[in-house]
UniProtKB/TrEMBL annotation, chains A, B, C, D:
UniProt entry keywords in alphabetical sequence: NAD, Oxidoreductase
All copies of domain Gfo/Idh/MocA-like oxidoreductase N-terminal, residue ranges: 7-130
Ranges of residues in domain GFO/IDH/MocA-like oxidoreductase: 145-289
GO MF term list: nucleotide binding; oxidoreductase activity
Signal peptide positions on this chain: none
Name this polypeptide is given: Gfo/Idh/MocA family oxidoreductase
Origin species: Microbacterium schleiferi
Alphabetical list of InterPro entries matching this protein: Gfo/Idh/MocA-like_OxRdtase_N, Gfo/Idh/MocA_oxidrdct_glycsds, GFO_IDH_MocA-like_dom, NAD(P)-bd_dom_sf
Amino acid sequence: MSSPAVLRVAIIGTGFMGKMHAHAWRTAHRFFPLDATPEIAVVVGRDPDRTAAAATEFGALASATDWREVVTRPDIDVVDICAPGDTHAEIALAALAAGKHVLCEKPLANSVADADRMAAAAEAAPDVVAMCGFSYRRTPALSLARELIAAGRLGEIRHVRAQYLQDWLSDPEAPFTWRLDRARAGSGTLGDIGAHSIDTAQWLTGDRIANVSAVTRTFVTERPERDEHVGLGGRAADGAPRREVTVDDAAAFTATFAGGALGVFEATRMATGRRNANRIEINGSRGAISFDFEHMNDLEFYDAADPAGEQGFRRIQVTEPEHPYAAAWWPAGHGLGYEHGFTHQIVDVVRAITERGPVSPSFAEAAQVQRVLAAVEASAAHGSVMTVVEGASS
Amino acid sequence: MSSPAVLRVAIIGTGFMGKMHAHAWRTAHRFFPLDATPEIAVVVGRDPDRTAAAATEFGALASATDWREVVTRPDIDVVDICAPGDTHAEIALAALAAGKHVLCEKPLANSVADADRMAAAAEAAPDVVAMCGFSYRRTPALSLARELIAAGRLGEIRHVRAQYLQDWLSDPEAPFTWRLDRARAGSGTLGDIGAHSIDTAQWLTGDRIANVSAVTRTFVTERPERDEHVGLGGRAADGAPRREVTVDDAAAFTATFAGGALGVFEATRMATGRRNANRIEINGSRGAISFDFEHMNDLEFYDAADPAGEQGFRRIQVTEPEHPYAAAWWPAGHGLGYEHGFTHQIVDVVRAITERGPVSPSFAEAAQVQRVLAAVEASAAHGSVMTVVEGASS
Amino acid sequence: MSSPAVLRVAIIGTGFMGKMHAHAWRTAHRFFPLDATPEIAVVVGRDPDRTAAAATEFGALASATDWREVVTRPDIDVVDICAPGDTHAEIALAALAAGKHVLCEKPLANSVADADRMAAAAEAAPDVVAMCGFSYRRTPALSLARELIAAGRLGEIRHVRAQYLQDWLSDPEAPFTWRLDRARAGSGTLGDIGAHSIDTAQWLTGDRIANVSAVTRTFVTERPERDEHVGLGGRAADGAPRREVTVDDAAAFTATFAGGALGVFEATRMATGRRNANRIEINGSRGAISFDFEHMNDLEFYDAADPAGEQGFRRIQVTEPEHPYAAAWWPAGHGLGYEHGFTHQIVDVVRAITERGPVSPSFAEAAQVQRVLAAVEASAAHGSVMTVVEGASS
Amino acid sequence: MSSPAVLRVAIIGTGFMGKMHAHAWRTAHRFFPLDATPEIAVVVGRDPDRTAAAATEFGALASATDWREVVTRPDIDVVDICAPGDTHAEIALAALAAGKHVLCEKPLANSVADADRMAAAAEAAPDVVAMCGFSYRRTPALSLARELIAAGRLGEIRHVRAQYLQDWLSDPEAPFTWRLDRARAGSGTLGDIGAHSIDTAQWLTGDRIANVSAVTRTFVTERPERDEHVGLGGRAADGAPRREVTVDDAAAFTATFAGGALGVFEATRMATGRRNANRIEINGSRGAISFDFEHMNDLEFYDAADPAGEQGFRRIQVTEPEHPYAAAWWPAGHGLGYEHGFTHQIVDVVRAITERGPVSPSFAEAAQVQRVLAAVEASAAHGSVMTVVEGASS
């Protein structure tokens, strides 16, 4: 391994997520005191030219096309997996086998079996950090919500209502992408954004979903093939060949938490007008919180202990020195953006590595999310309540 | 019957709803041109003294204790039923048999069988008006939403998410009331406020719920008996005897509409911090609407036909001359309150009577809501998807 | 005078304000326990037919065309002046001379001299109630704000920023109305809606404006004559003759309060998109409040005593039993509308009469608002700071 | 000069602003295609150790303590001035004399005379870029507002109301800082944040403030000396010596724009509860915009051309490919933060250098803001309207 003062990172993947992670790796130590300084040693992709360009863009020292070779290189400390879900298991298992720390984008895998194998491998390697990238947890407003709930400020949790609403597929002529192909993406809206809601809900409440009753829907069953020159959300050329959509456009389910709370979840990419409404609202016997990522710097908090006549949801701007992660940034009221959750994730990964502290979300936690997703799909298929299977590692 | 210029009304019930209806009967003709002027001829209640006091308070000409006698009196034109749900069927059937117009508070009845009998009786009496009091329909913002959807502005409807969130039972020491007794109330939160969401969703979309998958929950299973001197939402005395809650505190269900839309519904009286959040959001292929009764004068409308880069939910203050019911009231921006839905309901009842026009919600429509409620309860009991039974009159 | 159990009212004026007041007189005793029951004895207007129709619409017992005769009739207890501002002084002085209680719409008069004469007459008649109709004070959210400030919850007041923004004159082709004629209306936007902001600001803070520095503006200097068939805010026919606008379209001023607070005021009828944004925000050393009439049931309250990290404006829905006026109405979260401020005003007038309690806003208070308005106009004319003259009765 | 492919930057200042600029210089070329790649060659500060630490933190190649030496070094292309206002003129004039491009934080200088000298020097050096750092202009929502107004979508501008509200000085025990010392800071709240509102208002409208009528206020006239160990906004130790505050805590003024619009401005650091409410609202004859930096990704836009009955402010999430700067970042609805305005500023500086395009805000524009500030101070001192002096370079 390299000197403890430097942490050498291999980013696997050259797309949007790789770019985001690279920004976070470059930025974390500029704002947070860390015991090791990350360095993006290499970016790995399939196409040599495109990967070389990404390496320059990402501020990496080099590029490569063979991830198998990279994950065993002695100079690499951390393998950061930003490739599509169908590659996660193989890469992560190889990296763990090579003794590398692993940060893996969500969903952890495209199947419960793969996720469980990954969780088992992580447990078998206690000396390395293995974390799954549910980055929304590191949004300061949600971190604050977690603190309030953990401190008992909401009392007994009764209601969880989580919606993740996007609309970039609401146009039936929006072109096909790999995210609509079950073979690549594993599942559709459910696994892509519904997984975030499940993780957030379980993490905030410190509870687990015990069973679900679900319905899924594909509103647009075939779409034009993507023209290379049209971006995400654009329209394909008239007369383009059509391809079948093999994943869900939307999923909704009710859930019972082990502790008794009642959950209502909805995820869709067809909620016209909602660009990225990642919302969660939790009501307990003593208080409530409400959050919408479209105003990501705000947490609405209701304290039932406020005097009668003065009660109401208060809008906390989670940008103050007292708030999670916020002291490192700008003065109060000068908000953060989407990318900061990723930067905070890197801060926590680095600290877990240097301080040998607990890791969250661990692969085991992420595998449990995968089992909830599997129960949702099974419930939707059978039209009945489905219990979430406990994993060996849970 | 009395002269066409006057419409003589009997209000059955002296509680909160009776008081509200009385206000609406007194007020409608002061702001809207009507071909008949309502007059509250009599208020009917069990207790003579309390009923006499209510008659004075309501501005009624007289009081009475025997509804059977009243509903057959020749001088009565309209019977307005504001008593608890377990009395609706008997009173309504008697009134219809006597040839009276009937306005009946929701839910129409405590059972599908009763509701269907009422719908059949109404159909058998085409010369009288029989309307169910889903008053939220007459909130101008929701009436405008209906107009926009009916005009095709939302395109194909894909998503309906409706929440009705209250919190007056979140304190476990909040006392028992008849609304928590299945024998009186029929059902709990589901029938009380969930019924509103169902009616609103079906009416706005012009569609019907075909099947549901539901869960219900009673979080507080017994409560102290109510002290007569403590109001709704207050706390009972320490050591008060406890009584079992026999209805649901909360209900949640997913739904499939006949036209293919995916519905997500939630109703609760335990959503700490939400006093009366009657919310509905509908996404279609061409646009969306969003509404929350806590800001009842606003309708959020998203038009996907707006130019790229200028799209967004616009907050329409539904207080302008162009808006449903609004021209009768104050200048633009000078909002209305909860009671105006009831006043508008009276306007529509009176016009249905004098113009012999269509009535909505008819008893048949309200009976169909009752069948959805029954399907929800059956689904919650069986843990599986349940089809909404079609009624004879549907 | 009539029996103490009945209060006989003469409404002077048949327009929008007369209609509003009539509604309030009919409604107050239906919801609030009062020691006297109001009865609208007579409506007074210029045109006999129109006034007779108004009497029917308002629920009055009779109509009349000679206010001089009416205000001296022995059976009249209260004279309620809803006619344009240029008539207020003469009617009010006659009514007070006749020993009648007087409720006078704002602004109290069109000149400081008239206002001072009215205030002097009111002080000389301590046995009758003389109140000016700044009805916004009776919006529960603003009444709650006043309670919080009076209880010291905001500490030392430093900032008052009040805006009253409307837009019904933003179209240059919106027709001329009497409100644009200085001879009738006294002043323009300033006196019409700016007066509300001044009254609200002084009443909430319990302080007085000591000096002002102002600018006024008339953006549209002539407008088409109103076609009788076109309503407020409509457009006149092409080629209609034009008439000069002799009042301000907008006014803005900074103000110093006697207690040291810094005020910023703006009133306009040209704020495109703002239908009735009557806003006020007050910051003190210990807290703050924020209000916008477009969401009139909400008060935003910030308490600097909340723990660090949990601070934020909380949205109080001012609809609970603990809140001013609210217990008489509907359950929590079931909002009130514009008209309720007027109903509450009648409640307070009747109680002031039956309980011989203090009256607020008194004519003296309203005359002081008039002196602020005069200082604003003088400051705008001279381009320099102008001190608000103290009145004899202040 | 160095090769055109690299742009070597000297950052003068090691504080909060220096750190922010460094982040922007490191980040701009990672997300935007630029013809030159910035490199932070040196950071300059007074204290050698602290400056060396800042250089490491900022990702700079070196540190230095003598700005005079640095600004004439042949390897430096750009001098970026992030030191307090009293140093701006001297540094900028030296840098311009040495033929360097200059980016200077706002306010441009502490006096009009200095600002005018700087503007003259910039005009005399047409081959270099001289820009003033009014970074809020580069917030995408405000850039979009500018586009809409420039395209005539708001019609004739009538109203500008701008507030910049902070509260970090509302506690009288908050310690003294150099920002409260007129000798260092030039002015107080007015120059610090009021300057932003003036620049934004003039830039958005494309108009200039012609005259002002102002009031300023210092609510807390002395404060405890800062303990070195207490951060901004913290409290000093009890018994700390006190120092006189020589600047304004708050300023408010009305303004007349050359084109006739009426402006109302307010800036304060005592608006309890408002952390960074940089708000602007503009109403024109055809539409309006409204913005609050506390929700910096949203622009509210009102289009008076929308059909009657469908009008309302629409919330545009300014995060879409069509929006200024946004295509370089994340998917729609994934918001940006405070720092992005600075990154965009660097993008524009670099492009102005490589493309020899127009620069905005130029030193001349910034000097004109300074003249408005001077007029505000003069008006406050004299209690009368003050005309904004035209500059030689205006």
